[in-house]
Amino acid sequence: MNIFNRKKYVTVPQGQRVAAEEAANRVPDGMWVKCTKCDKVVYNKQLGEYKICPLCGGYFRISAPEMIANVIDEGSFVAHDVDLVPENPINYPGYEEKIAKLGEDLDIKEAVVTGRGKIHGVDTMICAMDSRFIMGSMGSVVGEKITRAFEAALADKLPIVVFTASGGARMQEGIVSLMQMGKVSAAVKRHSDAGLLYTTVLTDPTTGGVSASFAMQGDIILAEPKALVGFAGRRVIEQTIKQKLPEDFQSAEFVLDHGFIDKIVPRPEMRDTLGKLLKIHCQKTTPAPQDTSKFEYYCGGEGVEPYTAVEIARKVTRPTGRDIIDYMLTDFVEIHGDRNFRDDGAIVGGIGYLNGMPITVVATQKGHNLEENVACNFGQPHPEGYRKALRIMKQAEKFGRPILTLINTSGAYPAAGAEERGQGEAIARSLLEMAGFTVPVVAVIVGEGGSGGAIALALADRVFMFEYSMYSILSPEGFASILWKDGKRAKEAAAVMKLRPTDLMELGIIEGIIPEVETGFENDMGHSLNYLEDLLLKEFGKLGALPLDELLDGRYQRFRKFGSY
Q: Cα(553)–Cα(476) distance, rounded to whole angstroms?
């Protein structure tokens, strides 16, 4: 790219004026480039291998071969179907000549490069779209190459990673281009049904028919920062609704906030992030052998007074779900969104290793200060939070990972908007699906376990409680208000409600208690969490060894017994 305007003049140090064309001839093409984000001119070599503007941090669009080179193990990639070129299905004038010319001018013959290689040692199918080729539009050959890649991945039981960069369907191929949305989606479904991992990486731009098909069908959906992601164009939407849209509309950040992607990953971190995800999904990692025969269950003492337990459970200094995850898990990758409406900060979820064993964790999240609590709605999930949790847990089931839920919530968020979006239905769906999960599920009450908002994540094979936590039909204040019309009698209500772990052990509601130091486990996290780690390894080991019918029947009978006569 030449940055000089050939019709204007520039000033040279001596004050002479020369034609810009003469000046341009002294500068090799491509030495200077203009950033489309900040409109500043940048020396090409300053961009580095990842093509990031040193002035504003904006991402330059890169070719499919460059994208692949950034993530692949050196020398491991073998391209497939490199000579496949389209026909002219609707006889569009000049189309074949245009395709041939682009094939001569570029290092690719179509708008996608497909092949097989390794990422951090994991054998993977890879597809990378290229916006240089008719804006990465999806024609018949793009659809065919990606479909073949999914078929090859299915045949060889491989994960697949697809980098999207497209303006949408290719107009020059008419309805045949539109059919590629259905064709690739059908191949994605077969690959998914075989229990194989599909990861998409959305780059700038990912729009139109690509965004409405395989770009949004991944088990994990990543995106580069500030990437344009959307279906209809901004101008079309503004003309239709007669309103100006926000500046960040259809950005990767906008789409993340609205729950449709899992994570935004900077380009320099993409290789390592993909490597972590591929390893945890595709390598059957066996936990280090442990002798759990000497493990002793903690039964707990009489504990503190009921309302004192409530006060300790509610302390703002109490470790949160994130704190526990950070302490206990390695290589944790958080994933986001319900793929429907928004990403609810009251639910944290993701994948990591517990002493070498891949597990999925879903946690309700509270904060340590006002700002954090506002961000996570004081630990009260919206319906999209429960849908996010369920999506993450169903993904764990697909890949055969045990599930740990960490619960600390006063209950589901009571608000008009939550009701409009189906709070009850979201909790009901979670309970229905959890009842049939084919992987072990362990739930842990960390602080408050309030009402349906808690049991939504606690239909598990085993339920444990921290020593100074509570699990109840609702808060003591709510109990007193409903039954006695006096919320000030909360302390009295706490004694009646049998909400302490020791009380719940007697009722058979929980299987065990996790010890805490007297003032709360924030004062000695190791004392509690080292015990919890050993407990989880023992329980997941026992549950994982059960035949599926015994696992499911045990879970059924665990709840069937309550109130039976």
A: 34
